[in-house]
Amino acid sequence: QGDRDWWRHGIFYQVYPRSFQDTNGDGVGDIRGIIERLPYLTRLGVDAVWLSPIFPSPMADFGYDISDYTGIDPLFGTMEDFDELVAAAHEAGLRLILDLVPNHTSDQHPWFIEAKSSRDNPRRNWYIWRDPAADGGPPNNWRSEFGGSAWTFDEASGQYYYHAFLAQQPDLNWRNREVREAIYDVMRFWLGKGVDGFRVDVIWHLIKDAEFRDNPPNPHYREGRPPHETILTQYSTDQPEVHAVISEMRRVTEEFDNRVLIGEIYLPLNRLVAYYGNDLRGAQMPFNFALLSTLWSAHSVEAIIADYERALPPGAWPNWVLGNHDRPRVASRVGPAQAGVAAMLLLTLRGTPTLYYGDEIGLRQLTIAPDQVRDPFEKNVPDIGVGRDGCRTPMQWSADRNAGFSTATPWLPLAHDFVSENVASLEADQASILNFYKAMIALRRKLPQLVSGSYEPVAAQGDILLYRRRGTDGLVVIALNFGAEPAATTSSAIGFNCEILLSTFMDRQGEKLEGMLELRSNEGVILGPY
Ligand code: TEU
Ligand code: CA
Description:
Elements: H1 6-9, E1 12-15, H2 31-36, H3 38-44, E2 48-51, H4 79-91, E3 95-100, H5 110-117, E4 129-130, E5 151-154, E6 159-162, H6 177-192, E7 197-200, H7 242-253, E8 260-263, H8 269-272, E9 285-286, H9 290-293, H10 298-311, E10 319-321, H11 330-334, H12 339-348, E11 352-356, H13 376-380, H14 423-428, H15 433-446, H16 448-452, E12 454-461, E13 464-471, E14 474-481, E15 487-489, E16 498-503, E17 512-513, E18 517-519, E19 524-529
Parallel strand pairs: 1-2, 1-11, 2-3, 3-7, 7-8, 8-9, 10-11
Antiparallel strand pairs: 4-6, 5-6, 12-13, 13-14, 14-19, 15-18, 16-17, 16-19
The chain binds 1-O-alpha-D-glucopyranosyl-D-fructose and calcium ion.
Pfam family, one: Alpha-amylase
Family: Belongs to the glycosyl hydrolase 13 family.
Protein name: DUF3459 domain-containing protein
């Protein structure tokens, strides 16, 4: 546990607890289920597990609306179960990361119930209350991400409260010192239990404009995008004062040894990197989501890597994400045939990779019938097209009933292909995407230059993205064919005597190259000198 750099060298894996493994037959995943599946995670070869929220919650936003920061929701188990999970994870050599949701609470949190009770309640100022505008309407034009105004009127006290998400998720007032200290104590509570760090939900939202100015219209708004995107979030997010808050959070994590602070931030790369903080005193891993929204081509991805590498402050450690519980599954975004190329990219770029559960078995976005939609975002804004349920479907463990996820009907439907697409059958299939992930992760462990080597771009050739990773242990070359056609390159990058260390199809290991590399459609390879 004494390794200060574990989060730089390690691979993170996000578990969406509702959908990982049910053990008590209620159709919802739980903590005991995660304990049962730890051996799977060590077999896969990841180093840290991040859990989406497991705290008491009315579940209006499936746990991102917390009513008790230091408890465990009975749906997921007990505090004893949690303590056992921490011990079992550490025993297995895995770190455990929790989701911290400090921007807002549930409207059922005792803090909000008190704040709402009267204008002069001592907790009133823990939330964001404003008088109505002159016409009685909301105080400004800020929009909720989940539809409608971001302000809800409280009849009893005659004021509006602010919520960047659902009305059941009132925003805390982070300009209030008492709020900060209360959340820092929550952090200490979990860190004291041995938790290895936090992924901080919407960290870039914590501070809002002191004057609550109207947000300007979005000149790039496109038809068909969610309505809240018609205006920018210039005054409601990413305020300069947020960085002082984040460095305070960082300091709290440093009251304990070797912990990590991860920030969830959706911003362009040049703004994102500010979240490393002055002198790198901010988040160690401001999540880099650039691959979630890029066009899937060698040239676009090459440009993103270059932008990011250029924007990173000196000494800042990069990170990359391919999927999460809010965005369409990677196998659907890039197409199932490209899933191996995407995985090879994620696991060979410079920086810490975060995997999303199920991506390693090629899970696709599932289309959910309208009457089965559970996601409040999609319910409120039905026209957004792709909702979030489709990337949160149960993990597919086996061909058994309900894919081995549960003895009961799962809370979200399973994909019909689970009979063949499941952990048990993919583990038995030598060339499966799952075994490719394992081989790739094992190779990453064997070759330190894949973890800590420099990144050296080689100009992309057509559909082939090429780069080198160079360390004191030598050089490797990565070549990824983003196209559905075979492609070849004679780039000087592969001019030396090299052999294939791994192909996404896992059938060319040891093949020697003579200055020319031919790739099949949708193939990626890692090359090393021989
Ligand atoms: O998501 C923040 C975020 O930016 C989302 O609004 C995202 O844009 C949206 O889900 C559409 O894809 C975090 C959590 O990851 C998300 O699950 C929560 O619903 C949200 O915060 C509120 O806590
Ligand atoms: Ca359960």
